[in-house]
Specification:
Layout (H helix, E strand, L loop, with lengths): L4 E4 L6 E9 L3 H8 E3 L13 E7 L4 E11 L10 E8 L1 H13 L3 E2 L4 H8 L5 H11 L4 H11 L2 H25 L9 H20 L1 H8 L2 E6 L6 H9 L17 E7 L2 E7 L9 H16 L2 E7 L6 H9 L5 E6 L9 H7 L4 E4 L8 H12 L13 H23 L3 H9 L1 H9 L5 H9 L6
Parallel strand pairs: 1-7, 8-10, 8-11, 11-12, 12-13
Antiparallel strand pairs: 1-2, 2-6, 3-4, 4-5, 5-6, 9-10
Helix pairs in contact: 4-5, 6-7, 6-15, 6-16, 7-14, 14-15, 14-16
Length: about 450
């Protein structure tokens, strides 16, 4: 990290402004070779103050563009190194030429995420905050942006540090019981178990928040399931608010599956319209039903559609039973027609599931259904900044939880304090990996490779 890096920090394309950023010990000296101030000499330049000047090619003896330059001396900069930002007109040709001149003057091209990597290595932020930088840049909704900003400012990191201090404190008390049994410095097993339970509750809440995070970043898969001709494709179109699937009064119209993404209150959902799950009448339909069953079994949730204008059948109840372990909303469609279905009998199969009556054809209650989808499969009103957005974070929190659960189990079984303390101690390296206190180079490479060049 002794060299000086340079990159364009604004998005590709044309714009009113474009920024070229340098970071490293020689940032200012390299800038002096390609930038000429208009009214001030270099010794008059103040830190963190923009000055007007021109980009100059010393070999060709010609000006390239007029620009502003701002100098951020270490350690009060993004990377905690000397940083220079040159603001030019947003022409790709000009920006690329500024980078070329900077490289000729002694800088090298930055790798993806290298500015933020240097900020992490310089101690300006931890890995959770570094991930939040990229999450903020790529946020698909204002809510996700707010969560990422909270994590960039250290909200989640502080919570992790609190959990770590609670774990360390508990280990210390357990070990004090071993070292000083007669001085009353330890902790009774019952109190230790109570403390451990509270820590586990906090960690498991973070693990559970990953579904919310995934809905914001990737989107959850929702399979629209039901028998043939109950209105699955009509509901699919109604939720999308445009005609995407072919709708027909004849059963078996949908023989393959359709997949489209919708956004509800900042969360994304991939809706999958599929063939009706019943006895096929054609070999192609048979293959479509097989695919539909596979997709439904892998989906994050089910919208189970029933025809409210017909009596429920054993086939309906059997299908609900088949998917009862999935998170599900029972959708009683065709509410614009006289109702014949026994809703209570359907709900009895899966009492914990929400249900709602709609008319996909008329658009009745579609807005309510969308809200129910968001509350059931995303987070409802419980969203806060302590939402984990990455599988890496979820996996490490799970490892922490496993270690602490083993320690709690040993405490409840009456094992000696040293065995319980050793089980609890196994959680600390995973907590260290969460914030990057314990570095894993392969993980670092994976995290920062996803960044854009210039950040």
């Amino acid at each position: 990290m002794n060299d000086t890096i340079i990159a364009i920090s604004t998005p590709p394309g044309y714009g009113g402004l474009g920024i070229v950023r340098l970071s490293g010990r020689k940032s200012l000296s390299i800038s002096k070779r390609i930038f000429r101030p208009r009214r001030k000499c270099w010794r008059d330049i103040s830190a963190r103050t923009s000055i007007l000047g021109d980009i100059f090619d010393s070999e060709k003896k010609e000006f390239i563009d007029e620009a502003f330059l701002a100098y951020f001396p270490a350690p009060r900069s993004y990377t905690r190194e000397n940083v220079v930002e040159i603001s030019c007109h947003g022409s790709p040709v000009i920006l690329e030429e500024v980078v070329r001149l900077g490289i000729r003057a002694g800088a090298r091209p930055a790798h993806p995420g290298e500015f933020t990597l240097r900020a992490y290595l310089g101690g300006r932020m931890d890995i959770i905050q570094a991930e939040a930088v990229n999450d903020l840049i790529t946020a698909a909704s204002l809510h996700q942006a707010k969560i990422s900003l909270g994590q960039l400012r250290g909200g989640l990191s502080r919570r992790i540090e609190l959990l770590r201090s609670q774990v360390v404190d508990l280990i210390s008390l357990l070990e004090a019981s071993i070292e000083f049994p007669e001085e009353g410095l330890g902790i009774p097993p019952g109190e230790a178990a109570s403390r451990l339970e509270k820590i586990l509750q906090a960690i498991n809440a973070l693990i559970a928040s990953y579904e919310t995070g995934r809905a914001m970043t990737e989107g959850l898969n929702l399979a629209i399931v039901g028998r043939a001709n109950v209105g699955k494709s009509t509901l699919f179109n109604a939720l999308l608010d445009h005609e995407r699937a072919i709708v027909s009064p004849y059963p078996g119209t949908t023989r393959d599956y359709l997949r489209e993404r919708i956004k509800i209150k900042g969360s994304f959902f991939h809706l999958i319209d599929m063939a009706g799950l019943e006895r096929p009448s054609h070999p192609v339909e048979k293959d479509g039903i097989r695919r539909s069953r596979e997709l439904a079994s892998r989906a994050d949730g089910i919208l189970f559609v029933l025809d409210a204008s017909r009596n429920e059948s054993q086939a309906d109840l059997g299908l609900i039973e088949k998917f009862k372990k999935k998170r599900m909303i029972l959708v009683f469609n065709k509410a614009d027609l006289p109702g014949r279905i026994d809703r209570s009998k359907c709900r009895a199969v899966i009492p914990t599931s929400r249900s709602i009556g709609v008319s996909a054809l008329k658009g009745t209650n579609i807005a309510r259904l969308k809200n129910a989808i968001w509350e059931t499969f995303s987070a409802g009103e419980s969203i806060h900044e302590d939402v984990i957005l990455h599988m890496r974070q979820k996996t490490l929190f799970e490892q922490v939880s496993f270690a602490l659960e083993d320690g709690l189990k040993r405490l409840r079984e009456g094992h000696p304090e040293e065995i319980c303390a050793e089980e609890v101690r196994r959680a600390l390296p995973f907590i260290g990996q969460l914030t990057g206190e314990i570095r894993v180079d392969e993980v670092m490479t994976n995290i920062f490779s996803r960044f854009c060049v210039g950040k």
